[in-house]
Amino acid sequence: MNILYLGYWSVLDGLSESTIRPHLEVLDSISEVNEIIYLSIERTADVVVCSWPIAKMDFIPFYSPPKSLFRDKLFDFTQLPDLLVRLCKARSIDKIICRSSLAGAIGYLVWKRVKIPYYVESFEPHADYMLESKVWKKWDIRYRLQKFFEKRQKQTASAIMPVSNNYKAHLIEEGQVNCPIEVVACSVDLEKFQFDQNKRKEVRQQLEITELATVGIYVGKFGGIYYEEEAYDFIKNCNDQIGGFHLLVLTAEPKDRITNSLQAAGFPIERCRVAKVKHHEVASYLSAADFAFNFHKRTKWSFALSPIKNGEYWASGLPIVIANGIGDDSDIINKSRQGGMVVDFKQGLQTQILQKVIDQCAMERARNECVALARQYRDPKIVRDVYLNHIVGSEK
User: Fold this and answer.
1) How far apart are CA 272 and CA 240, in angstroms?
2) Domain count of the chain?
């Protein structure tokens, strides 16, 4: 079987490294899969290469440099389907896997012409996300087109794979999906992200943080779909209530912007380390921490999310401080009473609730409990089972 895997981000994007690569590795491990054609969309004229050691994979970049607000997208939807139709015929493609409903729109256009079965994983209400975040308006042609394509994917895909059970339930209640719905949360390499005592000591020494300090870590951005002022205030409250508290922030945002905001909130910036690191380096920093933050805002559509950072946090044994209504993860923490704590970032911090997380940090079994959640909900074996049952067929 030959599979075309269609991404919508650059191969150099952290999202591709953290969410696409694990799935390509799963496909590579399935005996029935002969060849994987991975196509990424590159927004630069610079030549890019993919260095992932995946034996069956052939990487093909599609260069679509930004031209204007709409012209780059127009190029995607007019030129790329033609290329893919030719590619499918030349490489005898049997199935197409699209990562996200954005890639699914391209997959739908290809399906209309060659009727090769296509599957959309990480299927999320992208148009509604963009509307809710005020990036798009309801009259915006991008919003209207994306809504149209999402509806068509529900009607014509061979299977769609949302990342949360909460969104699956919404899709079933909505009644517009004409194909199987299988939940595939963003998976994590459990071995790569397992806690490493040596890395913990190494990173703490490098950052000049003592072993006795309690370290909270955040991987991601501030603002937009994430809390900003509330997050900085919450971090400041953590410092007020935890003796020897230190903060690690892994982000692509400017360091000065974050440290200035923390300082304005009253946080002592000498206790903060902000770094931009490659994805393969994240695990070492997680080992250096004691608990983690997820600052996703609770919104009308946040129940459809599956933040990759949560899986990485749990795989590293870190309890998560998170808002209610974030994918399935907030419910998992509430129901299991493990894996962290659910808070209202707008209401500040209650000392007795924070103490629960500190106690979890101090208990070795907390690492095992968090890792158990990662294994239950984020193991790549879940992806493999779905691929075998719905795309490849039963394993021989």
Assistant:
1) 14
2) 2
